[in-house]
Amino acid sequence: MKVLVIGSGGREHAIVTSVAKSPKVDKIYCAPGNAGIAALAECVPIGAMEFDKLTAFAEEKKIDLTIVGMDDPLVGGIVDAFEAKGLRVFGPRKNAAILEGSKAFSKDLMKKYGIPTAEYAVMHSPEEAREYLKTAKFPIVLKADGLALGKGVLICETPSEADAGVKELMEDRKFGASGDEIVIEEFMTGPEVSVLSFVDGKTVKIMASAMDHKRAKDGDQGLNTGGMGNISPAPYYTAEVDAFCKEHIYQKTVDAMAAEGRPFKGVIFFGLMLTPDGPKVLEYNCRFGDPEAQVVLPRMETDIIDVMEACIDGTLDQVDLKFADNAAVCVVLASDGYPVSYEKGFPISDLDKFDGKEYFCFHAGTKFDEKGTIVTNGGRVLGITALGKDLRDARAKAYAATEWVDFKNKYMRHDIGHAIDEV
Ligand code: AMP
Ligand code: GLY
């Protein structure tokens, strides 16, 4: 079969790598892809938001299955556009992708169906927000309602910080219309865990757990990023936590979406915080995490095409979703200065040392320059993933492999997986 993957980051490289392992697949296209993906797929220069061009391409090439990696097109309704043309596509429709696209929607859903999450209120104007903040407890969390590249969350220690936050999100509209409404939320504490799941509208199957490292610097200091590294399994995700979430969070969310007339098909990413009062949902995403996909998918034993087709067909209950009894660690190699400002266009050396079995080099921000050399092309450049018999083994191998490649301004955290030593 012919598969089209939509996106251009490390997550899409990990998806394409899994798709390439399926004996059912003869040809992979990726739009727009990157220099690493180009080794496995034919990259086509169409942007992820160009729905008309993408559906026309899928019709012309007779694509059997399209997989959407990114949140923006999903929230924008790309699945509806493909379905309207009778094309097979993996991902939630627009009316279900709202689970990630609107924090006000997802918070109201959790409240209505009794899914554990932080206390909150939705604010529709700066005046309303300022009035609410007069009696609020600090620290407090402000969140832009819509997508904001993971940067629309402000943790405010004092009333004056919160006031500045309201200005930034609602008056200066730093994230545009995303800040027209904001969610003001109780501040929670505890380790964070990422749990990805496949969903077919009614059944949910959990993938291996993961733990992200969102801050730019060692010791979880510095600014929030898209993620500087990941480990799987998450050491804090115990059998007890798993049992709690299965009872109170995963199936309840899927049932709630169905009850609302918004059946969810695709990947739900549960961003959890393990608070002293038990696990609570921080956020939902409607797609694989990045870099979570780079540690979870290499551990998956079931054919990804079989799972995705079962999600589309509503037969996920018949799939035996299996993960290897091993561990994976991904260390992101970024451009120094990310996430604020950084230079691009530097050649990357020695990209051919990774065997694709135990060692993976997922490209996040790379491209070919005019001479055909692979150069840096983003803040996050590469995700170096290693599999190991356990987390310590995987971590040692991943860090050893970060030395294999080089580029100017290469930057990484040196403490990815610190939780391994804390549990
Ligand atoms: P989100 O995009 O909602 O996942 O938020 C981004 C990050 O902000 C999370 O990964 C947490 O580290 C932090 N965060 C979000 N909401 C809260 C909260 N209610 N309490 C504490 N930290 C939070
Ligand atoms: N790594 C977090 C995310 O993909 O949203």
Low-confidence stretches: none
Radius of gyration: 21 Å
**Chain oligomer state:** single chain
* Global mean pLDDT: 97
> Strand share of the residues?
25-35%
Class based on secondary structure composition and strand pairing: alpha+beta
Helix amount: 25-40%
Description:
With 423 residues, the chain is α+β, with helices and mostly antiparallel strands. The protein contains 12 helices and 22 strands. The mean pLDDT is 97. β12 and β13 form a beta hairpin. The radius of gyration is 21 Å and the shape is globular. Strands 10, 11, 14, 15, 16, 17, 18, 21 and 22 form a 9-stranded antiparallel β-sheet that branches. A 5-stranded parallel β-sheet has the order 3-2-1-4-5, sandwiched between helices. α7 runs antiparallel to α8. Helix content is 29%, strand content 28%. The longest helix is centred in the middle third of the chain and has 21 residues. Bound molecules: adenosine monophosphate and glycine. Adenosine monophosphate binds next to β7, β8, β9 and β16.
Summarize the structure.
The chain is α+β, with helices and mostly antiparallel strands. It has helices at residues 10-21, 51-60, 71-76, 78-84, 94-101, 103-113, 126-133, 159-171, 239-259, 292-296, 304-313, 391-402, and strands at residues 2-7, 27-32, 42-43, 65-68, 89-90, 120-123, 140-144, 153-156, 182-186, 192-200, 204-212, 215-217, 221-224, 229-232, 265-275, 278-285, 327-335, 359-363, 366-368, 374-376, 380-388, 410-411. 29% of the residues lie in helices and 28% in strands.
